[in-house]
Amino acid sequence: MAPSSAVPDEQVVVGEEIEHVRVVTLNRPRQLNAISPELVSQLATYLEKWEKDEKAELVIIKGAGRAFCAGGDLRVFYDGRKIKDACLEVVYRFYWLCYHISTYKKTQVALVHGISMGGGAALMVPLKFSVVTEKTVFATPEASFGFHTDCGFSYYHSRLPGYLGEYLALTGGRLSGKEIVAVGVATHFVPYEKIVELEKRLISLNSGDENAVRSVIEEFSSEVKLDEESILNKQSIINECFSKDSLEEIIKSLEAEAYKEGNGWIDAVLKGMKRSSPTALKIALRSVREGRNQTLPECLKKEFRLTMNILRTTISKDMYEVIDVVSLAEQI
Known about the structure:
Elements: E1 13-18, E2 21-26, H1 37-52, E3 58-63, E4 67-69, H2 74-79, H3 88-102, E5 107-112, E6 115-117, E7 129-132, E8 137-139, H4 153-156, H5 164-171, E9 175-176, H6 177-182, E10 188-189, H7 195-205, H8 210-220, H9 235-242, H10 247-258, H11 265-275, H12 278-291, H13 296-311, H14 318-331
Helix pairs in contact: 1-3, 3-13, 5-12, 7-8, 9-10, 10-11
């Protein structure tokens, strides 16, 4: 999540129509393309228009600058805290957009470099083709600042190998481009230096034929080989600890594992979790666990209710208190 708001008159989403190809660029580079009401409205307008356009066959989604999308703009939520349901419309619209993207009738390709977090990653994960690079950073850090795992990620996380989803939801742990391809969050890894040429080739393909699009992407793709220190190589420990029934048991299990040789990485995990809102962590854990037996629409409905109750402070005021602390720190 990014802390700034958009310039009012800024064109926060840029759409291009090139014969049978449509290119949409999230255009808030100074705010890491964070999700604002204007961005949601403009992106939805383009996607709705193109889905109905018989000439449109292929839609490419990318971000301007050094990020794909940093997730929801926290300042939008914070600024609306004193007005009842000030963010209801944008939250509902974005959740609808998350579902719409997952059922979109045209072939979609996400070209993802830099940060792709939270709701921003929801613009990548459901697509038929999601291309990442060595500069891609994926995370769902919402619980760490008093929020919850939203925008469909109680569904997506619950379907990751073992209990990796619980780990990502509770720790906000970051995965690299190679790692998210390895676990199926993204479909292809392409070196950053080849992304511009890949985009040109996709545009020149001028077709939404899935096999043809896949063939072009695979020409540029590289085999994924995980680094020795990858968190994915810790899957057995993650499964052991994050399979426990409660947050307290998960922390206790992590503390026990931290004493064992070679498990120094757990110290940072524990420090982060103990600094986070216990309420938010418990909500995230339960939500991901429930997601295993829910469809994507069911997860989105559940997450929408959670989001609105958190914004209304029906559950807790933890998120607003975290933003207050961050804002104070920025002023010092």
